[in-house]
User: What shape does this take?
Amino acid sequence: MNPKQVIGVHRAGSSHWVGDGFPVRNLFPSNGVDLNPFLMLDYAGPKHFAPSAKPRGVGEHPHRGFETVTILYQGRVAHRDSSGSAGVLGPGDVQWMTAASGVVHEEMHDPEFTRSGGMFEAVQLWVNLPGAHKMSKPGYQELTSAAIPVVTLAGGATARVIAGELAGTRGPAKTFTPVHVWDLQLKEGDRAELPVPDGFPAGAVLLNGSVRLNGTPLEGEAVLGLLGAPGAFATLEAGAASRVLVLAGQPIDEPVASYGPFVMNTEAEIRQAIDDYRAGRMGRL
Ligand code: MN
Assistant: This one.
C-alpha cells in the first residue's frame, strides 16, 4: 500500500463576507485548487460578534445542481428553505442540504445568538452531484451532533465521522457518490493514519494548529494540504493541538458549468437555471 503524495499546500485565495453574517476564508476554488467532487469550501470565522438587535446572515438566495454542507463549530444558525424545511444548527451540528433541482433559502444567525453575540465559526462545503441527480427532488438532512459518531484512532486523535466510513464506523450522511468527510481533533503528539481510498483525491483542511501531513508541515489557520488520487493512505502528526477537516471523494467525471449558486454540466442548463429562478420555479420563502 503506497501513501498518497502531498501535491500542494494552499492558503485561502479570497477573504470576504457572505451576507453580513459570515466572514469567510475560501480554501478553494478561489486559489485555483480543484478537489473534485467538492466544488467549494468556505471557512467562516472564528469571529466574535457583538450583541445585536438585527439578525445577520445571508437572505433569500437559490442553489441548483449540488449539495451544500454546513458544519457548525461555534454560534447558532437558523435557516429555512422553499421546500418547507427549517431549523436551527448549534455547535457540532451539520446540515446536509441537497439543492438538486433547486431551492431558495436563507441562512441567518439565530435570534438567540443575534441577541447574545459571541464567537462564530463554521465551514460550508459544496459537494457536486452527478448529472443524473442534478434535477432530482431537493432534500435535507439535519445531522445533529449527537447523531455523528466519534471514533478514537490508534494514534490518539478523535474523529467525527460525518460522511463515509472511518475505523469501521459509518457517518450518518446519505450521499449520491462515495464521499468521506472526517472532522479530526488532535492533541500535541497525536498521530492519525487516514485510510483515504486509492483513486480519491483528498484534502486536509487545517482549521487551526500545527500538523505534518505525510511529513509536509501545515501551520496556523485555514491551510489546505492537497493529496493526489493515487495511494491509499495519509498520515497526520500533530505538533500542537489541531483541528483538521479531511475530505475525500470519488471524482465525478463530467463537465462542470457554474454560475454563482448554480452548478450544472452545460451552459444551456445554467441559462435554464437562471430562467427558472427568476420565474419562481425554484419556489419562494
Ligand atoms: Mn446558501
